[in-house]
Design brief:
By secondary structure, the protein is mostly helical. Helices cover 65% and strands 8% of the residues. The protein has five helices and two strands; from the N terminus they run αααααββ. The protein has helices at 3-14, 18-42, 45-64, 72-93, 97-119, and strands spanning 131-136, 143-148. Strands 1-2 form a two-stranded antiparallel ribbon. Helix 2 packs antiparallel against helix 3 (45-64) and helix 4 (72-93) runs antiparallel to helix 5 (97-119). The chain is globular, with a radius of gyration of 18 Å. The model has no long low-confidence stretch (mean pLDDT 84).
């Protein structure tokens, strides 16, 4: 993943509530799957293996985020475990078909989670983060970002 993408996801994560974090994990999974496909097609097996490791890590995070007090969690758990097995199969066989199956599942799940996230009015999970302001300043067609420093960032007095 490029540094630019890492910064984009970091910014999204710092401003996300619980529901939005699930959407971000789905985005990350789909992004790592795309990266894995591209690397397999290029023949870069180390990068393919790395992308698959990160994709499976996203699925494990989704499993860990399940609230098992709800009945739906059992169904999601089975779906996530299936996706994890498919990703392992793709890595072992160096096959693109299991990745396509996982992508198909998570595109639909992501759409459902996005609808749920629209209804979630809770605040950001992370507190005391830096504020980032972006805008067109002092440059033609150039986006400049600036961060404000919080006096109490990360520590409570």
């Amino acid at each position: 993943m490029t540094n630019e993408k890492v910064k984009e996801y970091t910014l999204r994560i710092t401003n996300a509530n619980r529901s939005e974090l699930i959407v971000i994990l789905c985005d990350l999974l789909l992004s790592y799957n795309k990266e894995a496909v591209e690397n397999l097609e290029k023949g870069d097996m180390d990068a393919f293996k790395n992308a698959m490791m990160h994709a499976k890590g996203c699925v494990r995070q989704l499993i860990g985020a399940l609230n098992r007090t709800y009945d739906l969690a059992a169904a999601l758990y089975e779906l996530y475990r299936y996706a994890e097995r498919q990703l392992s199969l793709a890595q072992i066989r160096q096959d693109l078909e299991p990745i396509a199956i996982v992508d198909k599942i998570f595109v639909k799940l992501k759409a459902a989670f996005e609808e749920m996230a629209k209804q979630d009015n809770s605040g950001a999970v992370m507190q005391n983060t830096q504020s980032v302001y972006a805008g067109m300043t002092y440059g033609r067609n150039q986006l400049n970002e600036s961060m404000t420093s919080e006096a109490n960032r990360g520590f409570f007095a």
